Amino acid sequence: MTVWAIVVAGGAGSRFGRPKQFEIIAGSTVLGLSAQAARAHADGLVVVLPAGYDLPSDISADRVVAGGETRSASVRCGLAAVPVEASVIVVHDAARPLASPALFAAVVETVLEGADAALPGTPVADTLRRIGGGTVDRNELLAVQTPQAFAAAVLRQAHAGEGEATDDAALVEQAGGRVVVVPGEPTNMKLTHREDLLVAEAVIRARAPMETPLRIGHGFDVHPFSDDPRRPLILGGVHFGGHPGLAGHSDADVIAHAVTDALLGAAGLGDIGQLFPDTDVAYANADSLELLGRAVALVRSAGWEPGNVDCTIVAETPRLAPHRSEMEARLSAAVGAPVTLKGKRPEGLGALGRREGLACWAVAIVSRQQP
What we know:
By secondary structure, this protein is of the alpha/beta class. It contains 11 helices and 18 strands.
């Protein structure tokens, strides 16, 4: 499954007074912050700019196109630049620079689970009144945000008629598509007026104390032994011959999975199930060390550098000591930092003690990359 993101930044900023997507917040452009969040969960990125504008230097995009006269027209310009083999397309407004990578992950995962479209929504806090008089029941309303994710074919079909709407989910819904709402983020504000820049800057500064130079993540995974005698046992990227394999969608490498979750958790990037869902046939019998390498690349793209990972494997069988050095070497190569392993016996207690499966705990430390 290939995910592409379109960041729409083709507006003139009429209410703002100038193109707000090029304003600076916390040392980055508004567009740069939006593009960075989109990048975290996309294989490719298209940026839609106003005609005559160049891409700011703080952004790396796969494709850059000029927008149209309306937002919907600009999205269609971006759609034309997305490869036909893309499975999921995420559309995000550049004017929402505070959307988190986790929000992108949530809408993408919802589409991968079968929805035609997914959008973030938040409850309406204010009392709403019609211009002609009378209040509106706010319990029946949601404030809609971007990013919005779509099955690629559904989004292309919705735009085939060149319709106009304030967001793309509305076009999909008009065409009969199923739109699912996921919880939005109160801080995912849309910049409309110049004073909104001050609010956005304050939100970023409020988040800053959490971005410490060092962060720690914890990972855990457990798999039962498989009944299939043909399934190999893979631990830490090493094949253990003569032992039953573990049941799972991928190769069920319980150590690599725990290491992956520990690193993703430390960087605040969700978990292995969000990135590589077991509902996706693309990951059937996948090499978990390869998936670990892809997760490490995301951690680095988010500005974090792995320091080390320490693991404890709990199992009655097999004996890990003969392969410990090779497992540590393979895992360390995938992470680009030291990975250490310790084996513990459950002493006959519980399912692990009955030799029904294996479990692994991992703790990772990451450090903020130096500019």
